[in-house]
Amino acid sequence: LITCEFMYSTANNSTSFIGLFTYPDETGACQLYPSGTNFDSYTETARACGGLAAAIGLGTFIVLLWESICCQIPCAKILETTALLAATVCQGLTFIIFGSEELCQGLTVSTLKNMNITDIVTDSIKTGDFSFPDFEQVLDEYACQTGKSGAYSITAIGLFGISMLVTCFSWRPEPCMAK
Q1: To pair with 121 at 20 to 30 A between CA atoms, which of 6, 88, 105, 154?
Q2: Burial letters for 147-168: b for 16+ Cβ neighbours within 10 Å, e otherwise?
Q3: What's the distance, Cα to Cα, between the start and end of the chain in Å?
Q4: pLDDT in tens, 129-139
Q5: DSSP 3-state assignment of 33?
Q6: Residues 111-114: contacts with CB under 8 Å, at least 24 apart
Q7: Beta-ladder partners of 9
Q8: What are the CB-based long-range contacts (under 8 Å, 24+) for 30-34?
Q9: What does pTM read for this prediction?
């Protein structure tokens, strides 16, 4: 969550890193976004879901640890499984940030697919330039791509999912302090 390499864009032959909560300054060090920074709804959702997934995961770990050491809590298995499902979904929703036009120059696969070919042809006729854009090249050049902490987020989704399945389908041992 804290690294400034959640995603990146390589527009204009330079790489720009973007984090959920941080950004790189001129020296490359990660800085928190200033308070009062206005983000679009995609970025706000991704930031909220990233923090919520971490909090739910930590809370579930504490409950599981408490049950392993002290005592079993009635219906805890249902609570823990549901919490891990919520953490998995929230962690997955951090990738909604890729829909942000502010951060990804508005060029995504859906944007390119919805480009009006009539407008492109009309502009080409007016200017006399009939070299149509190579959409894949434009997408590669401007669209955001997953960075290092984005890969960590994908790993977290998998681990939350595996933890949810293990918690749901495994048997419960007696707490070690109850003996």
Answers
A1: 105
A2: bebbeebeebbeebbebbeebe
A3: 40
A4: 555 555 555 55
A5: coil
A6: 112/138, 112/139
A7: 16
A8: 30/2, 30/3, 30/4, 31/4
A9: 0.72
Angle at 43 between CA 41 and CA 12, to 5 degrees: 120
CB 17 within 8 Å of CB 147: yes
What is the token pair recorded at 90?
Answer: 């929230």
DSSP string, 58-98: HHHHHHHHHHHHT-PPTTHHHHHHHHHHHHHHHHHHGGGGG
Phi, psi of 98 (to 5 degrees): -70, -15
CA distance 47 to 62: 23
**Amino acid sitting at position 115:** M
- 50: nearest Cα among 108, 89, 10: 89
Contact assessment for residue 156 and residue 53, using Cβ atoms and an 8 Å cutoff: yes
Task: Indicate the helix (H) or strand (E) that contains 106.
Answer: none
Q: Is residue 9 helix, strand or coil?
A: strand
- The residue with tokens 């070299």 is 131
| Per-residue model confidence as pLDDT tens digits over 40-53 | 888 889 989 999 99
